[in-house]
Amino acid sequence: MTWWLAVVFVVLACVFALYLSVTAGRLDRLHRRIDSAQANLSTLLLRRNSAAIELASSGLLDPASSVLILNAAHVARECADDTLADRSFSESALSAALNAALDESHEPDEPGLTGLEHQLITEVVALGTRVQLSRRFLNDAVRACRQVRQQQLVRIFRLAGHTAWPQTMEMDDALPVGLGPR
């Protein structure tokens, strides 16, 4: 009888070890997904900053709007290596500047625009949409990772190791009114 009890105990221990291994692998994949989503979002935010600077320098906007966008874009670019809270605040300020400068009078389909002006506005709107999607992917990955890390066994066996708690990116990434997806 004790032989069967030992076999059952070994099988249960193997199943438990397999569960812990699968969960640790899932956590690792989630952390890698978060890292790649953060890198993608960072790249898109830098591209959006460049497009905003290009738009502000093009002469398409009035001088006050151009200065507002240029200042916000430069501050956002300088905050690229700062903490997540500082970066989200500066990127929200750039979104607000773009929303204030671009309105329904700057639609990409406006007949009086040259090819370059049309291209600049379209690029800013497209990058804004991609930033929104990238931020959603990042926040979804962070939420999934937090759910796994909150499980009792994950905390007891420290399956996440010493990895920092993942943070969501909360920022205003709304597209200018009238220029969003149709």
Average predicted local confidence, pLDDT: 89
* Number of structurally distinct domains: 1
The main pleated sheet reads as: none
How many whole angstroms does the radius of gyration measure? Answer: 24 Å
Query: What is the molecular shape?
Result: rod-shaped
- List how many beta strands DSSP finds: 0
Tell me the β content.
under 5%
Spatial gap, N to C terminus: 72 Å
Helix and strand composition category: mainly alpha
Q: How are helices and strands ordered from N to C?
A: HHHHH
Count of helical regions: 5
Relative helix content: over 70%
Query: Low-confidence parts, pLDDT < 50 over ≥5 residues?
Result: none
What does this 3D model show about the protein?
The chain has helices at residues 2-57, 63-78, 84-101, 115-149, 152-156. The longest helix is centred in the N-terminal third of the chain and has 56 residues, at 2-57. With 182 residues, the chain is mainly alpha-helical. It has one domain (24-156). The mean pLDDT is 89. The termini are far apart. The protein has 5 helices and no strands.
Structure summary:
By secondary structure, the chain is mostly helical. The chain is built from 5 helices and no strands.
